[in-house]
Specification:
With about 500 residues, the chain is α/β, with parallel strands linked by helices. It is built from 18 helices and 14 strands. It binds cobalamin and iron/sulfur cluster.
């Protein structure tokens, strides 16, 4: 393993949050006006900037959907590089989504709006993990499902009886949720606005995942298939991204969903665990319904790490066969790998990259193991005195925040950088090209555009050109996929040597 290259530079407005203006003096708030904010976070120079505008978070559109009609609701995502959120008119209520990596910025925004006279409500994953911390920065906090809480919060604001803390669990039937309000999104700024969720939770509870957070009870829930289909149809986009933690936890449900998606003629991608390949006929159904790519949390190729994390998964020795099965049906694989587990030594980096290249994964993401507060991993590392600091800004899976067992912090840091540098080198992109020569050109175009064009992405995002550039590519992928479907249909499940020709999709 050689030295990693020097970190590429990041444009200033992707590294530093936009400045907040001076406070207005004694301005009146606009009654019944609510602003929903997704705060800024610094971009990792090694990952693609493109992923930040792939699909909007569903949190704010869901909350917007639950807003009573007599409230005006606005949306601001600071990561779209259009500056700090607006204050004219001054919203009566500002709702801010808080994840741990942008908690500091969320608190800065909260304090700024509170000083102007707005009421600030904080919600989101980090509020659930660290409610006491969030409470110090807000008029009220929402712990858990905001869709249930938001209308009650606004009603209390109207009555002048705002509580400090609102709590809801995730056991209410999904069918009761109003549809997310995607109309509030700046459509030109996203590759697709159809981020959709069909299920909540996961059949696993890996010790490092936020789903294992103490006190979080999130049973696996599935929405009515028709509800999902209605939302997709209403948003009229060729490409749909499922933001579920694991769309494949209940194979029978996924099969039903696929049957309903197939006539829509869309293409889609989703996160699944690799056990979705247990039944090849399910993979075939996914492909026939338009699935062009899956994001798979392999996490580690070392069985000891997976056992420690209590992840129920097929053995890593069987991963290659399963990846080949997805490829056989033309489904691209974006693998996610966590580095720095207790069974990882300094050889983990080269081994992981080698495996990705051998199995021709079209794309991969690397994450330094990160102990999210409230998780079993956090408790374990705290007990062992291995947590280095609690600067949440650095808990972004791109920084080492704990003492690894079998290597130094520096080795982990440099190994992580080396993995990204190697995987997105010209040589590795070429090695991983599809075995089907007809798909190579599209694959190369996608790899270079998505992973090696960060300066270009900055330009697109800044000038709100994301949709203008990407939608034609997506439409082209969709058309090609529709043509491929008869081939997929003809592909029997028994003959493993036969495979469909690949259709590289514009949305990894
Ligand atoms: C879309 C997405 C992204 C997008 C956009 C994220 C964004 N913030 O803009 C992109 C691709 C950029 C992204 C990047 C990353 N992500 Co991400 N991402 C997701 C994903 C798949 C969907 C988010 C979503 O829409 N959820 C659905 C909504 C409805 O659920 P929700 O967010 O929990 O919101 C509910 C409540 O929390 C609450 N709520 C939320 N906000 C508010 C606000 C108010 C006012 C109120 C009242 C209530 C409320 O109400 C909502 C409805 O119930 C989630 C997985 C998941 N399924 O949640 C991961 C997830 C959020 N990401 C995660 C991670 C780790 C990352 C990265 C660090 C990965 C990386 N190394 O690059 C980066 C960091 C970026 C960052 N700093 O946020 C983790 C977060 C773990 C944690 N404890 O913080 C998750 C949970 C995935 C996982 N299983 O580990 N991500
Ligand atoms: S399989 Fe993935 S989503 Fe499910 S608990 Fe484990 S890390 Fe979380």
């Amino acid at each position: 393993m050689g030295e990693p290259r020097r970190a590429p530079s990041v444009p200033a407005d992707m590294a530093i949050a936009p400045a907040l203006g001076p406070h207005g003096v004694g301005r009146a708030v606009a009654r019944h006006c609510a602003l929903l904010v997704n705060p800024f976070y610094a971009k990792d120079p090694r990952a693609s900037f493109g992923k930040h505008v792939l699909t909007p978070t569903l949190a704010l559109t869901s909350i917007a959907g639950a807003t009573p009609p007599h409230w005006e609701v606005r949306y601001w995502d600071e990561n779209l590089l259009q500056g700090a959120p607006p204050a004219d008119p001054l919203p009566q209520v500002v709702g801010i989504s808080v994840h741990l990596t942008f908690a500091r910025r969320a608190y800065e925004l909260a304090s700024w709006y509170r000083a102007q006279g707005s009421i600030v409500v904080l919600g989101g994953l980090h509020v659930l993990s660290c409610p006491e911390e969030a409470l110090e920065h807000a008029d009220a906090i929402a712990i858990g499902d905001g869709v249930q809480l938001w209308p009650a919060i606004l009603a209390d604001v109207e009555r002048g009886q705002l509580q400090r803390r609102y709590t809801a669990d995730y056991s209410r039937p999904y069918a009761l949720d109003p549809p997310p309000r995607r109309a509030i999104l700046p459509r030109e700024s996203f590759l697709t606005t159809t981020s959709v969720i069909a299920t909540r939770g996961c059949h696993n509870r890996c010790g490092f995942c936020y789903l294992a957070t103490e006190g979080l009870h999130m049973p696996y829930r599935m929405r009515e298939v028709q509800q999902v289909v209605d939302e997709i149809v209403a948003d009229v986009q060729p490409y749909v991204v499922f933001v579920d933690n694991n769309l494949g936890s209940r194979p029978a449900y996924l099969r039903k969903l696929c049957a309903a998606l197939r006539p829509l003629g869309i293409i889609w991608s989703a996160a699944v665990t690799i056990d979705v390949t247990d039944d090849p006929t399910l993979v075939r159904d996914m492909a026939l319904s338009g699935c062009t790519g899956v994001f798979v949390g392999f996490e580690s190729l070392n069985e000891g790490n997976l056992t420690d994390a209590r992840k129920r998964t097929p053995a890593p020795v069987d991963y290659a066969r399963r990846v080949a099965l997805l490829h056989r049906y033309g489904i691209q694989v974006n693998g996610s790998f966590v580095l720095g587990f207790d069974h990882d030594g300094p050889d983990v980096f080269a081994r992981t990259v080698q495996w990705i290249e051998d199995n021709r994964l079209e794309c991969a993401t690397f994450h330094i193991l990160t102990p999210y507060p409230g998780t079993p991993l956090y408790r374990q590392l705290e007990r062992e005195g291995r947590i280095l600091h609690r600067d949440w800004d650095q808990y972004d899976t791109a920084h080492v925040v704990f003492q690894p067992k079998h290597m130094s912090c520096d080795e982990l840091d440099r190994g992580y950088a080396w993995c990204y540098d190697t995987l997105f080198s010209h040589a590795s992109i070429w090695k991983r090209r599809p075995s089907d020569s007809r798909a190579v050109l599209a694959y190369l175009a996608m790899s270079y555009l998505y992973k090696r064009s960060n300066r270009f992405w900055h330009l697109l995002i800044r000038h709100r050109l994301t949709a203008a550039l990407w939608r034609p590519l997506i439409e082209h992928s969709r058309q090609r996929h529709l043509k491929l479907r008869p081939q997929l249909e003809a592909l029997g499940v028994g003959d493993e040597a036969a495979r469909a020709s690949q259709c590289v999709s514009a949305g990894v």
